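Lab meeting prep.
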Amino acid sequence: MGDVRRDGQEAQDGQDRQGGQGGQDAGREHDGLAPGEREAVATELLAESERLRLEIDAAEEAEAQLRADCALDAADAGAENVSREQLRDRSAEAQVRLDRTVAALGRLREGTFGLCTDCSRPLGRERLLAVPTAALCLACRRRREAAAGSHSRGGG
């Protein structure tokens, strides 16, 4: 067993996780990000999680306000129902994004950020910088989408 590094990952006899001895990849982990990039991604994910929480709270508050309004005529009631449904949809979409963001933050803490949650292969630096909440490599994502498409067409 090697020593545990400052970020909680285990170092093997002075080598990084990819088996290198340093050089230009020093400080990079399996996610391919330099320490400064990793910190920037973490900061971005934390800010996004807070923004999404506020968005969800605001949508829930607006929906509660709509419910609290006094009796409405049929036309107003129909418009209120549409507004409430739109707020619920927006809140649900924000919750899905929040769940993905929180999961990415968890992977950062656990040291698995940048690895596909299905096959454990690296996602790649460019993908992580573009989509920091990505959990699947492109091959696994395509495989899931194809499986979902075959199930929706009844092709089990």
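Slide two material, second protein:
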Amino acid sequence: MGRISGLVPSRFLTLLAHLVVVITLFWSRDSNIQACLPLTFTTEEYKTQDIQLVAALAVTLGLFAVELAGFFSGVSMFNSTQSLLCILSACAPFPQGPFPPRPPSAA
């Protein structure tokens, strides 16, 4: 039972961290779109990327709501396999931590 008591708070914290990251991406949408476009881009390219990003973030929030509803309803809260899977999938984009490795410097 000690394993489950440790996984529930960990899962809750990873769910909240995931929510904070998605909300931050919504707030910084403009700079993220400009970062993925070439230095010279058209308004049409910007609008296309904006629509794609908003759609992806909306789907993310929708699925997040489903996951959070399942967690708070207790359906998946005490299922240790589900909790571990949720924690690992939330951390999967960061295999080396939140910061990418530095490129080798040219000497």
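Talking points for slide two:
The first helix runs from residue 2 to 27.
The two ends are 55 Å apart (CA to CA).
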